[in-house]
Amino acid sequence: MARRTLPSWLRSPLPWIATSIALAVLLGQMLVRTPPQPPLTQEHIDRAVLNTLETKTLPSPAARAYAAVHKSIVLVEGDRGDTAPGKEDVERMVGTGVVIVDSGLILTNLHVVLGADKLHLRFADGTESAAMLVSVQPENDLAVLQALTLPDDLEAATMRSTGDLALGDQVIAVGYPFGIGPSVSAGVVSGLKRNYVSPQGKRVLSNLIQFDAAANPGNSGGPLVTMGGEVVGIVTAILNPGEERTFIGIGFAVPIENAAAGAGLPPF
């Protein structure tokens, strides 16, 4: 059988080179002819932002504030009485705490843990831990706890001075009202530098932040948080003209400056 041979012009590299050059020239001309993209202007940015606002549901300020602080919220439980197995005369106290140092330091109210024989914590990720009482500040109804077991991703809350806090500023209260939670309620700062006498009349708390975000028993020790996700106070009391311990729109929080001082943290 006769061997087929390629034509001489195909065996030479010159045609291939010429073809490559021609294609390169053609591609270059196409690129030159492609109109340049117009520069990005503020009008383009405004249109894109407006389109996002019209088509996307953004989280509310309260939702963003909670997202910033929720990993620092702790359920605090104290058992007082005979805690031996089978014993039923145990009083359980329920409140809230907030992590202020990621080594496991937690702020709460003194009345939540006062007299407790055992302290138990539950963190946002479900981690449970025993706790010990580190220090107390009776004049502000505050206590500092140390968790003995820590979550892997424990985060401390961001604290902010109350120096520029103003009446009408939006805030949220986060905690475990009646042990349910974590729960979020929203409101505003209603007053500053308020005084409050405990129901027992044993202690006068002063320089308090008044707020109207719903708070109930169990919220005690939880944080009062700005819309920027920063803690400005520790919820400590609700005003009850009657005998029932329910919220009627007046709550009080200890300014975070007092709380931080009680924990041995530097002032703002």
Major sheet size, sense and barrel closure: 6 strands, antiparallel, barrel
Low-confidence segments, given as residue ranges, are none
Q: Strand pairing plus helix content: what structural class?
A: alpha+beta
Which fold name is given in CATH as the topology of the domain at 170-262?
Thrombin, subunit H
Say how many strands there are: 12
Radius of gyration: 32 Å
Helix content: 10-25%
Strand percentage lies at 25-35%
Q: Shape, please?
A: elongated
Mean pLDDT: 83
What distance separates the N and C termini? 98 Å
- The assigned CATH architecture of the domain at 170-262 is Beta Barrel
**Order of strands in the sheet with the most strands?**
1-2-3-6-5-4
Question: Could you characterize what this model shows?
Answer:
With 268 residues, the protein is of the alpha+beta class. Among the domains are: 64-147, Trypsin-like serine proteases (Thrombin, subunit H), CATH 2.40.10.10; 170-262, Beta Barrel (Thrombin, subunit H), CATH 2.40.10. The protein is built from six helices and twelve strands. The protein has helices spanning 8-11, 14-33, 42-55, 61-69, 110-113, 256-262; strands at residues 73-81, 90-101, 105-109, 118-122, 128-137, 142-147, 170-175, 183-197, 204-211, 223-226, 231-238, 251-255. The model has no long low-confidence stretch (mean pLDDT 83).
Features:
6 helices, 35% strand, 268 residues, alpha+beta, Thrombin, subunit H, six-stranded antiparallel β-barrel, elongated, single chain, six-stranded antiparallel barrel
